[in-house]
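User: Quick one: structure for sequence A, then sequence B.

Assistant: Sequence A:
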Amino acid sequence: MTLAACSSAPARMAAPVSAIELASPEKAFNSEEPARLDEPASPEKPIRPPADDGDGNESLLDTLLAAESRATRVGRKVLATAREMTLDRREIVRGSCWDYTNAIYNRTGYPNNKTGRKTVFRSSKENGPYADAALIQPGDWLYYINHSYNGIEHSAIFVKWINLDGRTALMLSYGGEKRREPARYLSYDISHVYQIVRPAEDGEDQLASSR
């Protein structure tokens, strides 16, 4: 498996947003001893989503708000913070995909410790077994094999399923590699998820509605 590193150093930039792109693309968290994987950004090729033209097509914002409405209470908080950072403020967190997602969880009130986050699934990234789709909830921080970029490790926030049978999902993904651009909502094959991190709150919290 070929790995490469992306750099890390915080920064932020805000700019007005006129159009948001949905693209088809392209360290590990331990609740006791946080670790980070080295992972590069992927060369993404943006594809604009259908505009809301009044004929039933959903805009990206509609899609995100619908996903939030179906999430658990803690998942909804994570997705809302992610949306505000990405779409409203177009923030840049200089560093890797891990750094951006970590910043989202921190700002939502779920710091990198036992009381802030819990690991609900962990396995071997090389050999599995990999997470069942039924374990994955909106707002989860997923670590998975990025099949669209040389099979390297990647981590991002799960938003919703695009094709459950095909294990394709809409993810909030950050490229890293010192890019001066915010994260984007991209479709990924997440058939090989080897770790799931979730806010450590309300173990009995259930999905507001089915995915």
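Sequence B:
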Amino acid sequence: MTARALAAILTILVLSACGAGTLSARALRMQASARCTAAVRRSDRIALPRSNAGGAAFLARGIAAFTPELTALRKLAPPRRLANAYRGAVAAARQQLDALIATEHDLRGGDDPVVAIKQLGVELTPINARDRAAWEDVGIPACSNLGPRR
């Protein structure tokens, strides 16, 4: 093989790899929906706490169910026309997870469970609204307001 032929093959390989990680809109929607649906199934299996004292453990199990999903969503490469909206949707999902983490931390630190959970609800109301709108804009409603569907 000549140097020229090798250079041509390498050029073709490099050019074909450009953008190879970017998904089509359809593929993005399918992959994200599958990840979110799986996370919701995992969260739906989490038993509700029998007492206020079980709130921290309940949140920890929810955090464990959704952290891998959020990590996977962040790795997906949306097409350019959906990139900003998709990043916004993932950011809103991250805010939801951050609120759960903060509340779980507060509960483990001894905060009153009733007050902490009520405050979490107040915090999540506007975050959930942004989250729902963001995922609807991207066309991936399965990722909207993740959490147990009870």
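Residues 23-143 form one domain. The mean pLDDT is 85.

User: Thanks, that's what I needed.
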